[in-house]
């Protein structure tokens, strides 16, 4: 049999999409909602970095009070155990810097998508550099990094929120500028997000989760006095029910809507907010409480500490 000789180098690309190959080549990393069944998260257990927070310096790190390190670790461990009890794989950031006491608030550092992670660039100088250890940890887990915010942009993960596979809210404000928001919007449109709802985050909040959070497939908990009308109207037109929380003490001091949905209609939330809990239960939501009063001295709670790595599609 004669041998066929092909002249020259002839290389032909695969036309298979990234998403079609992702499970085989990278693993099952996916997020297109705030409420799909939670399967894996990334957290940072408070380490040496919070031991230097004192009465003299807590304000420069945007803490509301000094934090007891052992109590803070215990409270975060309790949250992690709740996740594990519900079948969630809890991964931890490795090699984080010891001079970054805000590093436990992981939501700000990653925004997860159906095709991988967007690594964020924090706005305040005290947090810049946290993202390096996060990116290294994502790589070690095999999570694709589809974008790192760069140039003159800054963007924090809690400035964006999934409504469904085709719809994402992006807010600009003190923690996300137009350049950062545009970079995120471009990546989301590249992976098939059709509806980007742009909104201005008001002066009294730094992130979207300060005044809104998805609790079920078509239910959004909101603080109505911070929710822009144009944003609200677009959500209502999409069939989203707005559940209004108006107890300012619970919202601001108790971080009543800084929760994470474990699955549609089932959340884990900071304890000590009875009025908000009753309201959610009246709307058919199952509420699991966890005491985070020490963690909240850093102005964060459940949602702030949790990066979603994998949720089931809804």
TrEMBL record:
It comes from the Bacteria. Keywords: Transferase. Pfam families: DDAH_eukar. GO terms for biological process: L-arginine deiminase pathway. GO terms for molecular function: arginine deiminase activity; transferase activity. The keyword Transferase applies. This is Amidinotransferase. It comes from Evansella cellulosilytica (strain ATCC 21833 / DSM 2522 / FERM P-1141 / JCM 9156 / N-4).
């Amino acid at each position: 049999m004669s041998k066929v000789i092909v002249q020259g180098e002839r290389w032909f690309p695969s036309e298979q999409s990234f998403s079609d190959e992702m499970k085989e080549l990278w693993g099952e990393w996916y997020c297109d909602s705030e409420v799909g069944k939670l399967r894996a998260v990334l957290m940072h257990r408070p380490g040496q970095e919070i031991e230097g927070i004192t009465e003299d310096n807590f304000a420069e790190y945007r803490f509301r009070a000094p934090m007891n390190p052992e109590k803070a670790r215990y409270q975060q461990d309790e949250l992690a155990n709740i996740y594990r009890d519900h079948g969630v794989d809890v991964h931890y950031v490795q090699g984080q810097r010891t001079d970054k006491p805000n590093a436990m608030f992981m939501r700000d550092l990653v925004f997860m998508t159906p095709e991988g992670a967007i690594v964020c660039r924090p706005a305040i100088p005290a947090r810049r550099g946290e993202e390096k250890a996060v990116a290294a940890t994502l790589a070690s887990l095999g999570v694709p990094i589809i974008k790192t915010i760069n140039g003159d942009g800054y963007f924090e993960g809690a400035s964006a929120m999934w409504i469904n596979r085709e719809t994402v809210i992006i807010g600009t404000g003190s923690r996300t500028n137009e350049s950062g928001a545009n970079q995120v919007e471009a990546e989301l449109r590249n992976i098939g997000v059709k509806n980007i709802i742009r909104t201005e985050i008001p002066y009294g909040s730094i992130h979207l989760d300060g005044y809104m959070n998805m609790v079920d497939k078509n239910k959004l908990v909101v603080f109505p006095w911070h929710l822009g009308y144009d944003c609200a109207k677009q959500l209502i037109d999409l069939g989203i029910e707005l559940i209004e929380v108006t107890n300012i003490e619970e919202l601001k001091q108790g971080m009543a809507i800084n929760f994470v949905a474990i699955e549609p209609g089932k959340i884990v939330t900071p304890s000590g907010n009875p009025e908000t809990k009753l309201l959610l239960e009246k709307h058919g939501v199952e509420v699991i409480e966890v005491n985070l009063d020490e963690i909240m001295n850093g102005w964060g709670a459940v949602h702030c500490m949790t990066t979603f790595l994998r949720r089931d599609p809804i």
